[in-house]
What does this fold into?
Amino acid sequence: MPHLKTNMLTARPLRQHNRRSITKIVLWVVLLLVVLVIVTVAASTFFYDAVRGLETHARTGRTELEQVELYAQGLRLSEAIEHLDLADAEFAAAQHDLLRLKILMFVPGPRSTVIATDGLLKGSRSAISSLRPALAAAESVLSGLGDDDPIGLFLSGRTDDLSGVLGELTAERKRQLLIVLHESASQIRSSAVGLGESIKILESVDAGVLGLEIEQSLTTAVIRLRGLRSQLNNVSVAAELLPSLLGYPELSRYLVFFQNNTELRPTGGFLGVYGLVEVMDGSLVSTTVDDVYALDGPSESVERPIPPEPIRRFINIDKWYLRDANWSPDFPTSAEVMERFFHEEADVIGKDPGELDGIIVLTPELASDLLRIVGPINIDSKTFTSDNLVDQLEFEVERNYIAEGIPFHARKGIVGDLTNELLARLMALPLSGQLAVLKVIETNLAESHILFWFHDPVLEQFVLDHDWGGQLSNIDGDYVSVIDANLAAYKSDPVVLRTINYSFKPSGDRFEATVSITYDHRGQFDWKTTRYRTYTRIYVPAGVEFLGVDGAMQNDRLKDPARHPGQADVYSESNRTVFGAFISIEPKEKRTLTFRYLLPQSVVDQIEAGEYSLYFEKQPGTVDHGLTLDLDFGKNLTSANPAENPSEFGDSHFRYGTDLRFDRSFGIALQKP
It folds into this structure.
C-alpha cells in the first residue's frame, strides 16, 4: 500500500491561507453584527417616533372634539366647525404615523393592535365627516342671530318661555327660518346616515387589544353617537316635514279628526269631533272645532251614498255620513272618502271650507300622554288628567251638557276649549319639556294613534315610508290584520279585552290556518257601556281558500234571542283577501270568533323552501291586544326571530306570545329538503 507523505515545502503556506480565511469570516460577522445593531437602533427610533406621534395626534384630536362639543352647546357653531376640522387634521396625521407601523402587520403580536388602531382612526374620521353637514346646516339656521335673539336665548337655555319666543317672531322671520330649515333637511339626513356607517366601523373594532381605558372610552363614544344619530334622524324628519306642514311656501289647510277609540272603528275610532286648521309661514291663521253631527245632521234631508252593507245591516242606517266615512282600515282609502263627505256636507249648510292639503287623525291616547307632561287642566271647574280624560269628556258631552243647559249642537265645545288650553301649556314648556313632547309624538306615531294623509305626493310618500300613513302593508309572505268596527255598542271598547290566536298545521300538501279572536267583556250595562257589537274583519294574503267561520252571529241577543249562527263575508280589498262576520258579546261574557282557511300557495312555497315570514299588523287606535302564535310547519325549526322560549326548542312548532302595541314581524328558518 503506497504511503502518502506530507510535502514539507507546501505545508506552511496552507496553514497561513486558512488563517486568512477565518479572519475574513470573523470580520464579516462583526461587520454584520454592527450593521444589525445600527438597523435595530434606527428601526427602534423609527417605530418609537411613529408610535409617539400617533399617540400625540390622537390625543390632540380627542381634545379638539371636546372643544367641538363645548362650542356646539354654546351655539358657537362656526368655532365648533373649526375645531372639528382641526380634529380631523390630527386624526389624519395619526393615520400617517400608523402607515409607518404597518410593517408590523406581518408580526403576529402587534398585528391586532395595528388593525384595531386603524379601525379606530377610520371610524373617528368618518364620524367627523358625518357631523360636518349637520353643524353647517345648524349654522345656516342660526346665522344672523344677535345676542338677544329670542331663538338663540331659548336654544341656549337662557330662557324657557317658548310661547314668548314664538310670540316675538315676526311673520317674515318665521318664513326665513322655514326656508333655511327646508334647505337644510338633506344635510341633516346625510349626517344621520353617515353616523350610522361610522358606528358600524367603530363597533367592528376589537378595542380590547388597545387596553381597558380605550375600550371603555370607545364603548361610551358609540353609545353617544347612537343617541346623536337618533336625534339627527328626528331633526331631519322635522326639517323635511315642518316647512310644508306649517304653510311654507303657501297656506296649508288641514282637516283634523279626533277619533274616539273607546268606540273603535277601522282607522282608530269614531269620528265624533273634527277641526279645521289653517297655517301660513309657521303661524296659525285660524282653527275651528265642532261636532261631526253639525255636518251630518243637516245632511239627513239630502241624498247620500249607500253605506257599506254591515253599517246598513247592523245599525239600520241607509245613508252614508261623515261620521262613518273611515270604514276602510286602509287610511289613504278612508281619507279620500272623509274629504269628499266633508265637502259634500259642508256644502249642504252653505259653507266653503276651501281645498284641503291633508287630513290628520288623532286618538285620545295622544292627549292623555301629553297631559302626563303638562299636568291637570281645569276647564269650567272641571279637572282633566291623563287618567280621567276620556271618561270625563264622555260624561260632559254625553250626559252633563243636559244638566248644564248646553244645546246639543254645542255640547262638544268643551273639546275645543280643552284643546286650546293644552296647546298653550305645550307651548309654554321648557326645552326639556319640548323634547318629552317629541318623544310622546314619536311613540304615538309608532303605535298608530296619529295618522297623516296629504295631497302633496312627496309628503304623502314620506309619511308612508315612515309607516305614519295608515296604509295596509303590502308585503310578501304571510300576513294577518284583525279589524273591529264597533256598531252601536256605545263606548264599550275599553272594557272588552281581546286576545288573538293565530295557528296553522299541515293539511295534505297545504296548511290549514286558524285566526281566533276572543272577546272578554268585563263591563256592565250603564250609560256608556252595553253589549259589544262588532263587525270583525281579518285581512290575509291573496290566494287563501276560505274553509269556514265559527262564532259568527246573525245579530245580537236583543234582536235575535236564539242567537242563530251567522255567515262570513268573503271578498278582496287592497290586494288582500278579507273575511268579515258579526259577533255580539254580553257584559260578563266571553266569546270567540274563529276563521279557518288554507294558506296560499305562495306561503306554502316559502315553507317548503325553508323560509317563512309573518307580518301581523295592528289596528290603529287599539292599545295592546294579546297575540299568541302556534305554527306547526311539519318539520323542525333551525332558527326564529324573535326566538321562542328555550323550553319550546327542538320541534316543528313555533309558539310565541306577545301583544299588538306595535305591528309585529316574525322570521323563521326551517330544515330544508
User: Anything to note?
Assistant: Residues 1-12, 33-48 have pLDDT under 50 and may be disordered. Residues 14-245 form one domain.
